[in-house]
Amino acid sequence: MNQSLEILQGMVLDESLTFGLEDLTQICGISDELLVLLVGEGLLAPRGQSPADWRFDGLQVRRVRRALRLSHDLELDWPATALALDLLEEIERLRGRIHCLELQVGRRD
Amino acid sequence: MEYKDYYKTLGVPRDATKEVIKQAYRKLARKYHPDVSKEPDAEARFKEINEANEVLKDPEKRAAYDALGSQWRAGQEFRPPPGQGGFHREFHFSTGDARGFSDFFSSLFGGGLGGFGDAFAETRRGTGGRREDLFRQRGQDQTAQVEISLEEAYAGCTRELRLETPVQDAQGRVSSQTRTLKVRIPAGVSQGRQIRLASQGQPGMGGGPPGDIYLEVKLRPHRIYQTDGRDVLLHLPIAPWEAALGASIQVPTLGGAVSLKIPAGSQSGKRMRLKGRGLPGDPPGDQLVILEIVTPPADTEAGKALYQRMAESFTFNPRARLGG
Predict the structure, then answer these.
(1) For residue B194, what is the domain's CATH number?
(2) CB B233 within 8 A of CB B288
C-alpha cells in the first residue's frame, strides 16, 4: 500500500523565500488588517515601504504562528507578545551562539 | 477512558474562585507553553492545562463537570453516565484552539467545534478580522518533527511519516486514526527549519479547507561534523610538522574529500574556510575547518630522543604570554 503513496513536496520556510502580504496572510490564516497591525506593533519587520511593497522572508511564518499561539494561550496583548517573541528569539540566538563557540573550542558534550 | 481531575491539573481546590483559576492557569500556561518551555513534556502538560482551563473557567461546563461528583480520582476508569452525551451540543466553546482535547473531555462536552476547530479562527474573530461562519472552519494545523542525518540534509531524502489524526463520528465521538505520508525533504535543509505541507493538516469543518502540516527538521548528531545553520564545522587533526612546515591535506567534506593547503606556522584553533562546501542553498554554506595539532606519543626510544633533541634545539616558551 505504501508504494502507492504520493511523494509530497513541501515548502522550506527559510531566508531564501519571499512572500508578499497576501501570501503571508493566506499561509497563516489571518486577515490583512491583523497583519498590518502586527507590522505596526513592530512584531514583523518587512522590507518595503507600503503594505503593497512589503516583502517577508520564510522565517516570518514561524514568527506569526508563534505570535498567534502566545497571544491566544497566554492572553497577551500585541506589545507583550512582541516583547516575548523578541526575548525568546534572542535566547535561541544566544544558545545557538554558545553551542557554536563550544564546538569551535573543541568542547564536545 | 480515564477520569481527569481538572482541579488537580490546575492545582486549585474544588471551591476555587474564577479569579484563582485564572491565575493558576496563567502561571502554568507560561511555564508549560510549548513555545516558551524547555520542559521535555511541555506539549502534553500544556494540553492538559488548557483542557482543564476550558472546563473550569466556564460556569456551565464547570457545573456539569462538578455534577459528576467529587468521588472520582485522576486516572480512574470512567464511563459517562447514560444520557450525559446528550447535553454536549448545548455548550459553547469559547476557544477554537482546543488542540485535541481528551476522550474524557469530548465524552462530556463533545469534540465538535471546540475540539478540532481552526487554531487561528478564534484569533481572527478576537482581533477584529473577518468574522468566520462558526460552522465553516479551516482544519487545524499539525506540527511534527522529522529527524534526518547530515548526509540526508546534504543530498535531500524522502521520509515516511505516521501522524495521528483525530476523526469525529456523527455523534461527536472522537477517535484517532493513523495517516501515513511520504515527504520529500529537499537538499540543504538546516537544523530547526520548518517545511510546510499545504492542506495536509486536519480536515476542515462544514466545508472549510484543511489545515497545513509543519514539519520541523532535526539533524541527528554526526560523528565528525557539527553544523551552524548551513555551515559545517570540522575539527581537523594535524601532525606538528604539518602545522610547522605547511602541508596539503585531504579533508573530508559532505560532497567528498578536497585538498586543503595548511600554511606553514599554523597553530591549533586556526580556522580555515572551504567556501561553498557546507549544506547546499542560495547561498550555500561553507565548511569551517578548525586545526587541532595532535602530538605523536613518545613511546619508543627513538621518539623520546627526537623530542629531547627538539627541547634542546628550540628556544621556545609556550607560556611566554602568561609572563612565566
Answers:
(1) 2.60.260.20
(2) yes
- Residues of B whose CB is below 8 A from A10: 183-186, 195-197, 213, 215
Residues of B in contact with A14 (CB under 8 A): 190, 193, 281
What are the cell numbers at A84?
516575548
- Note whether A72 contacts B158, CB cutoff 8 Å: no
In this structure, are residues A10 and A17 in contact, taking their beta carbons and an 8 Å threshold? no
Chain B residues whose beta carbon lies within 8 Å of the beta carbon of residue A28: 120
Whose cell is 521520509? That residue is B159
Residue B17 CB contacts under 8 Å (≥ 6 apart), including other chains: none
pLDDT beyond 50 at B34: yes
Q: How many domains does chain B have?
A: 3
Q: What is the ipTM of this complex?
A: 0.87
Q: Tell me the pLDDT tens digit for each residue of A59-108.
A: 999 999 999 999 998 989 999 999 999 999 999 889 888 887 887 676 54
- In a mutational test of the B interface, the residue from A7, A12, A23 whose CB has the highest number of chain B CBs within 10 Å is A12
Alpha-carbon Rg for chain B, nearest whole angstrom, is 30
Interface touch B120/A28, C-beta < 8 Å: yes
| Nearest beta carbon to residue A2 from set B141, B180, B198 | B180
Do B153 and B126 fall into the same domain?
no
Q: Which residues of A touch B214 (CB under 8 A)?
A: 65
- Collect all residues of chain B within an 8 Å Cβ-Cβ radius of residue A95: none
A10 and B50 within 8 Å at the Cβ level: the answer is no
CB–CB of A41/A79 below 8 Å?
yes
Contact across the interface for A74 and B212, Cβ inside 8 Å: no
**Residue B214: inside a domain:** yes
For B265-306, how does the pLDDT look when each residue is reduced to its tens digit (9 = 90+)?
999 999 999 999 999 998 999 999 999 999 999 999 999 999
Question: What's the pLDDT at B223?
Answer: 92
Query: Is B124 a residue whose pLDDT tops 70?
Result: no
Does residue B321 fall inside a structural domain?
A: no
Contact between residue B165 and residue B175 where contact means Cβ atoms under 8 Å apart = no
Of B224, B222, B37, B198, whose CA–CA distance to B147 is shortest?
B222
Considering the domain architecture, whether residues B126 and B40 belong to the same structural domain is answered as yes
Domain of residue B303: give its range: 227-313
DSSP B137: B
